[in-house]
Hints:
Blueprint: E1 8-13, E2 16-21, H1 23-38, E3 43-46, E4 53-57, E5 60-65, E6 72-76, H2 81-85, E7 91-92, E8 102-106, H3 115-129, H4 132-143
Antiparallel strand pairs: 1-2, 3-4, 4-5, 5-6, 6-8, 7-8
Amino acid sequence: xxxxxxxxxxxxxxxxxxxxxxxxxxxxxxxxxxxxxxxxxxxxxxxxxxxxxxxxxxxxxxxxxxxxxxxxxxxxxxxxxxxxxxxxxxxxxxxxxxxxxxxxxxxxxxxxxxxxxxxxxxxxxxxxxxxxxxxxxxxxxxxx
Length: 144
């Protein structure tokens, strides 16, 4: 078994062991995803509704985060939408946002190796929302 301080927990699936993010690990991963989002050009953190946490580029939201009791990420996807919707618990976001590709992904229970994929999703969401000049700035930064 994993030590109590580990962000992952052991689960069994089809007679094989796979590693999944525990609730404690999910909270840490959500914080890390917020940090990644804030590293993108002109990104900033906001709490527009009570405990709702979001990351914006200029005045537009490109990532939503669940509260610490239910860690999740909400992103706008086009190219990766099918991939995201195949994750455990993933669903179209409410209020008609799902029709535009907005997808909610619960973090607990995800495979421990999904961090890079979630980073890709955040970047894709940023690119779909950010002004063209900031997307070009990001491309220049990534090319360096």
